Amino acid sequence: MCYDSHMENPDAILRKAGLMSAHVALFNRMNALRQMLFLAEVLDERQASAALVRAGNITTIGPSTQEEPSVTSHRGRTADAATCYSTLAELKGHVAEMYAVTTPELKALNAQAIEALKASDDLAAFAATLTKLDGDGADTARRSRTAPTPPATPAETPATAS
């Protein structure tokens, strides 16, 4: 493997990745919320008035009504039905066969969810991990700058005749 000279060793990187794995639920949550914004983006692009979201498909209702298992914006951002459906169930606070949503509603639900995330223990724990990683990086850099130099090997002294 080739690493940049400024890159840490693989063991340190794996340790940091391990610390981040505790935050997978937060990352998944944030990804789900992003997909809600991608769905809103698709609605805007298609000039759709609303979307019907079911567990297996998304129907955009507008000039050209389309039903798909996932929708992709012109920028290549994808929102899949399963993620959008489960996220809407959580955000709306009830389970339904389908959810009808508009772009403004998707944006409002997302904004509320982001505010809740900002106040969450998950985000506080993530901040603590980042602080720890920043400290580890500073300690590593400090150790490498102040690492003791190996002791000099004494020059061999010529044997004296006795």
From TrEMBL:
Q: Where is this region: Disordered?
A: 134-162
Record InterPro entries = DDRD
| Pfam families the record matches | DDRD
Q: What is this protein called?
A: Uncharacterized protein
State the organism of origin.
Answer: Deinococcus roseus
